Structures are given as structure tokens and as C-alpha cells.
Amino acid sequence: MTGPWHGPCLAGVFALGMVPASNLDAAPIVLPSGAGAEPLEPVWDEDLSVIRLRFVVERLREPASLYAANAELVFEDMLWLCETQVRTVFGPDAVPQDQGWVGAVITLMDREVEFGVVDSAALQFFEWFSFTMDGCEIDLDEYHD
Question: pLDDT of the chain along its 145 residues, tens only?
Fold first, then answer.
């Protein structure tokens, strides 16, 4: 089999009840749309077996932003973030599903919001992705809280 999720796993780390440390660099990421995203620390949601990858995109709300001109770019950037940043967190050859992780939630926000805190002034987009043998796929099967 081939694909981005095949390779050695982190079974020993998970057997000890630990999760991998974040390898996300604090440096801004240039998204395929051209927008810049600042990664925040991942949130390991063990109850749902998903990793929550959160990014600040300061120009998200601007009327002249790339996203305002083409809303589909938001989804394309989120899919790209799932495909690339999950490998950054788990390692390029790791298979997250082998470790019990079923997917990722990608969040884009116009300002940093503490996880779990409601900020009605912030604009946030969320998308759920399932891990597949080929990478990430939008998860439309179930409603997630």
C-alpha cells in the first residue's frame, strides 16, 4: 500500500498513554490561497479521538480577502492544512489511525481564541476531516459537537 499515512507507527508512545509532542512551527504558514496562517498549539481531543489544529488567519474577516472573493478557498486551505500539518504533528511516516486517532478538526479564526471559550467577536470556521489511507477526507457522515 502507498499513501501519506503508511509507515512506522508511534505505538510505544501511545501504549504509555502519551501523545506526540507538537512539531508545528510557530512561524506563519503560507496557504495555497496565498493567505497567511499562524499555527496554535494542537488540542488532543482524546474523547473523540481527533486532533484539533487551530490557525489564526488575521485577514479572514476582511471584505477584500481572498476568502471573500472565493469562499471555496477556505475549504481548500483547510483540506491542505489537514493533509500537511497532521504529518507535521505525527511525523511524515506515521499512521494516525493505527494510534487510535480517527480525524482532525481544522479551525481558522481571525484572532486567537482560547479553546473552549466562546468569543462572539471572533470569526471562526471549523471543518471535520476523517483520516483515510490517502490522507484527509471531509467528514460528512455524522454531526460532531
Answer: 334 443 333 333 333 333 444 445 568 899 999 899 999 999 999 999 999 999 999 888 877 677 777 878 899 999 999 999 999 999 888 899 999 999 999 999 999 999 989 899 999 999 999 999 888 999 876 555 5
Q: Which residues contact 77 (CB under 8 A, 6 or more apart)?
A: 31, 32, 33, 35, 37, 108
Give 126's DSSP letter. Answer: E
Could you tell me the residue range of the domain that residue 113 belongs to?
A: 23-138
Any domain includes 10? no
Q: How many domains does the chain have?
A: 1
Q: Does 125 reside within a domain?
A: yes
